[in-house]
Predict the structure of WD40 repeat protein.
Amino acid sequence: MIEQRVSELFRGADPGDGPALPEGYAERLVAVGRRGVRRRRALGGSVLLVVLLAVGLLGLGPLPSRSPQPATPTAGVGLPDRLAPFSFRTGTIGDAPLDRAVMIFEYGSGETINVWQRLALGADGNSYRQLDGIAPGTPWLLTADGRAVVTTEANRATSAFTVLDLSTGLRHQFRLPAPAAVALLAASPDGRYVAYSAAPYQGSTSIIGEVEQIARERGTLTLLDLTDGRSTTVTGVESVSAAAFSPDGESLAVQSGAETWIVDRAGRRLRRVDIPHGFVLAPRVAWSPDGRLLAVQPADPFSGAGASDPHQVRFVDAVSDAPVPPPVSAEQLLGWRSSDRILTLTLGGISELPVGGGDPVVLTRLDRGSSCEYHTQPCLALEIRAATALLPTLTVRSGDDPDRGPWPAPVRQVAAAVSLLVAALAGVLVWRLRPRWSRAGQRGRMVLAKRRR
């Protein structure tokens, strides 16, 4: 439209006494002007594209390597003095593996919206990673050495165990002889064996925990060897709802129905343990490091033995009828620091508690700030599991500068999209203001030229 008007002006202009314009001069002049405009637009578009790409790449944040390398071995074992706040920028095991995990827990809130992460805390006490690829509600077990996580299938018969190697981020599967209802029970101190209860079962259910309950009520004790994937049935040990390996890994304490037994890995019953009425074996972590004590807890925390104190932990002698320490109160028994100290979850956080009595010493304080649900709700730490073989040597370290690894892929994608959008809006704004700046520059040059005259 503008080019047509310019051509009409040239045709309708009175040349006066001036020389006649060559034929087609106006058209050629307009064509030259159009080429100049196209070149300037192409140059401006190219510059804008480069800017958009640069800003978009900056929005990706730290990038993981294409092939994550095995994690560097950590020196010593630690717990942070406080748990790091919730963050969507916490990377995954698949992008940045850990050497070992001292603890795995679920972290988040569900007050208004469900915002949860299943996190591994590295043995250095400072590194946090999300356990990617494990669906919500999937049963899992951390090995005692902190090097692997074993999972079964959620709310259905399990046909294969999935083992996540925390040091490489790789997964491998060990198939069962036949699909079954499975309940993971305990891990041996050396990280080789996993004890589980298995019962014949087909199909699936929508009720969370129903398949595990079937395995505990009807299942037989079975041992999975993580070195070769073979499962060995411990014949005659049935209806096992809880278990704990001895410190040497050669025998297990099992809760078989209402009875508690010490059995070896071949299934021979070595000794029956008398425990207080209404109490059952504490799952996974019952046995003390010296092999003398077993920890027990109320079968029902809200009635019977648990009515007076739902969080009480009592002790029984595993080898004789010798006197035992008095009960202690703890929300959850996480493991043993030594033969006379336990690691527990208390109102103050993760604490060390003397078995013989005394006040707990808080090692790790839980984040009570409103860092969940977009900084509107406090975070909760649930389903805490510790690598029990690492607890005797752990120390407390500063948690002020947590290592979260490279940003997870969804966060990088959102950040890149937002950065590109902002850069595009900025580019459009600059392009729209360019004519004004050009006219302002021309006026400035004219004023400057007049002043020079």
User: Anything to note?
Assistant: The CA atoms of residues 207 and 364 lie 34 Å apart. Residues 78-406 form a domain with the Neuraminidase fold (CATH 2.120.10.30). The longest helix spans residues 409-452. The longest strand covers residues 171-187.
